[in-house]
Amino acid sequence: MPFVPIRTDRNMMDANWTDPSESNKPSQYIPMIGMGLLVVGVIVACWVITMIYALLTGDGTKEMISNLMPLESLTITIKGATETLTIPDSFYYVVGLILTVLLLAISGGIAKSLITNGVKLIQPNLRDATDHIRKELLVHLKKTP
Q1: Where are the domains of the chain?
Q2: Model confidence over 51-96: pLDDT tens digits?
């Protein structure tokens, strides 16, 4: 009876074996994720810039601040005292401006981190592309007399 090799799990693993150096290569989707982060970061940055411009020019500043807190005066009554303390409208306006600027600063920081991380994800592929272009140009320049 002739010898017939039996396919074992070891042989099946060998058939599906891949080079470990190939598994360490970055995924092809990483640059697309980087581009997505970059685009979202630029959109958020543009939104922050338009909101800051609206605050500086006064277009809708009161409406923007009134979304954060009421701008009408508040009467505080202290128990046991015969007098009431009234806080003026300007105090609420200043506090509202401070809160708005703080929230815009946080949004600006988020936009900065999105743009920075997006560029970091795209950068290795850009280096490879520029190295390839440089090599092609050097080869082309050496061929021309």
Answers
A1: 28-143
A2: 888 888 877 777 777 777 776 666 665 665 667 777 777 777 788 8
